[in-house]
Amino acid sequence: MESLDAALDRLDWTDIGSRLDAEGHAVLPGLLDAGVARGLAQRVAASDARRVTLESGALGRGELFYFGAGMPAPLEPWRTALYRRLVAIANRWNETLGAAHRYPGELEDFLGHNREAGQARAQSHLSRLGVDDHVSLHQRNDGGQVFPMQIVAVLSEPGADFLGGEFVMTEQRPRMQSRPMVVPLKLGDMAVIATAERPFKGAKGCYRVNLKHAISRVREGERIGLELSFHDAR
Q: What is the Cα–Cα distance from 187 to 215, expressed in whole angstroms?
């Protein structure tokens, strides 16, 4: 944990918060060693993973592998440590929007609130996309206890292991067309993204904007991705 905290402490969290405020996403380059990333990718289709096809949920084409009761190392300590740093931004967002709710300082306490609210279905997963596979625009905001940020990463190398498969977000502001964004991810990069909503400061004050995310069609090869959620679903 000491080396993990040291790696996160080297990041400029004021800048990360500013990027999340402005764009709804912030890339954290090279947080996962390439060997660790590829090791995690090899856990696709592990015996303890719950396999779901994207077609079954009308979410695109490809496979998702949901982690069971415990996530493989080093993901659980990463998720816990990242939550501790992101919770201040999440609470600031709620304050900006005039929401009374505040998130607890520790992930385990927040997950306890999830369980009390009937949310016990883990959402963190690996994805495997082959040629012509994709993930449709969606949000992971099922339940009353939703953390406003989540983590995504790519565990194979763009341009070498696969072509296409860009991570895409859209942002919908009131009375405006959706704004598309491509989040550039390389092997070992993580990115913090808004789960579904974030505050936006307009000419007449702050209001909520709606965000969704997707993965574009893979043209060649195989893309392995990671998505870490801080909250569970109903």
A: 15
Instruction: Give the tokens for residue 47.
Output: 């015996």
User: Are the beta carbons of 191 and 26 closer than 8 angstroms?
Assistant: yes
Calpha distance 81→8 (Å, rounded): 8
Distance of CA 86 to the CA centre of its chain: 12
> Of all helices (H) and strands (E), which one includes residue 199?
strand 197-202
Task: Express as a percent the part of the chain with pLDDT over 90.
Answer: 82
Question: Alpha helix locations (H) across 2-57?
Answer: 2-9, 13-23, 34-41
Query: CA–CA separation, 185 vs 154, rounded Å?
Result: 7
Q: Where are the alpha helices (DSSP H) in 24-122?
A: 34-41, 75-96, 107-116
Residue 83 has which token pair?
């939550």
- Length of the chain (residues): 234
**CA atoms within 13 A of residue 15's CA, in its CB half-sphere:** 6
218, 20, 37: which is closest to 126 by C-alpha? 37
Q: Please give the angle made by the CA atoms of 96, 100 and 101, to the nearest 5 degrees.
A: 100
Q: Are strands 179-183 and 125-129 parallel, antiparallel or unpaired?
A: unpaired
pLDDT, tens digit, 9 for 90 and up, residues 83-109: 999 999 999 999 999 999 999 999 999
Distance (Å, whole) CA 217 – CA 69: 31
Mean pLDDT calculated for residue range 158-187: 93
Q: pTM value? A: 0.95
Residue 12 confidence (pLDDT): 97
Contact call for residues 171 and 178 (beta carbons, < 8 A): yes
Q: Give the helix ranges, DSSP H, for the chain.
A: 2-9, 13-23, 34-41, 75-96, 107-116
